[in-house]
Amino acid sequence: MDIAPFATEQFFSLYEFTTPHLLCASDCETISIGELLRLAGTDAQALLGLRLGYTESAGHPALRAAIAATYDGVTPQEVVVLGAPEEGIYLTMRTLLEPGDHVIVLTTAYDSLLNLAEHVSGNVSRWPIHPREGGWSLDLGELQRLMRDDTRLVVVNFPHNPTGYLPSTAEFEALIDIVRRHGAWLLCDEMYRGLERDPAARLPSATDRYERAIALSGLSKTYGLPGLRTGWLVIHDAAIRHSLINWKHYTTICAAAPSEQLAIVALGAREALAGRSRRIIADNLATAGQFFNRRPQMFDWRPPLAGSVALVGINVSSATDYCHALARDGGVLLLPGTCLGADDHSVRFGFGRASFPAALAAYEHYLDRVIES
After folding, report:
1. What pLDDT, on a 0 to 100 scale, did the predictor assign at position 45?
2. What is the model's pLDDT at position 115?
3. What percent of the chain has pLDDT over 70?
């Protein structure tokens, strides 16, 4: 049975590794293994004796303990380490859903959060995030109207990709209360948690607030280590966790031993890594704000509250056509909003890379050149 095309990854496969200037990357600036070891104060010799055999399906006990320690009320046994964060979305949908189960997905969304739910259940309602002056908003009344007695799963993503939206604590608690009253499961993609503009606005993990919440997280975004491919799920329910690990036996079986060991090192330095990412994003947002202020007729700029990305309105006839032409002719990569379920007059910008100022300068040079011609 065919599944919808993974538009975001298909677009990146055309240009990501050949286009000189990336303005839409969702991850944060990465570092080398040597830099990571130095940052964490770990001797490389400690890793050289690692045996390259199979690992435990649920994850190395030390890694699960390190992950659990980043939450308020999670035990190591409630953590499942993944071969990659993407695997967690697939495993959750396969574990929780049967054909016909009703699912509500916050949209716009990273492709797999929506497409896998539609593929497995075939019964998905979209809960849209709404633009407002200078930002975005959620309509909790709309969520309540979408909820049904047979709603099995609600899927959300905070901080949100691609808008950078972050609900208030009160809104988040109200959302959870709606899901709880209906007895539904809640999958919360928390990959960008820790990248808030205001640290005081950081939300608790959904799993620290709701027993039927499943949290997805990993090292790719906040910590700038996508090459490790390390992700995890937090699942309180033992039966669901057991069923999910059975599905995992049909995918990766276990995570890679070197990635697990380096993930343990990274979590030991997590505050330094996350702080570095936040500083880069803050600097890049200041640069971006000046750029957008210079071109108000071209862009509709809604600064993100959290995360490393923003969805920006663009005054062109087709953002999709524009992004293809920009990559080919200008050597600059923006992601069309259509890839993430937005309209064709929006693009995603990414602010986590140290190369952002140079990439933005190249884009501005392209815009000036187009105007002059």
Report:
1. 87
2. 98
3. 99
Q: Which CATH number fits the domain that encloses residue 52?
A: 3.40.640.10
Whether a cis peptide bond, with omega within 30° of 0, leads into 159 is: yes
Q: What pTM was computed for the model?
A: 0.96
Same domain, 77 and 57: yes
C-alpha 62: how far from chain center: 25
The closest alpha carbon to 352, from 278, 271, 272, 270, belongs to: 278
Q: Residue 370: what residue type?
A: V
Of 215, 245, 269, which closes a domain?
Answer: 269
32-54: pLDDT as tens digits: 999 999 999 998 988 999 999 99
- β-bridge pairing 335-336 and 346-350: antiparallel
Coil, strand or helix: which one is 301?
Answer: coil
User: Largest alpha-carbon pair distance within the chain?
Assistant: 64
Q: Locate 107 and state its tokens.
A: 């949209």
CB 205 within 8 A of CB 187: no
**Does residue 38 lie in a domain region?**
no
| pLDDT at position 372 | 59
265 and 277 belong to one structural domain: no
Residues 113 and 123 in one domain: yes
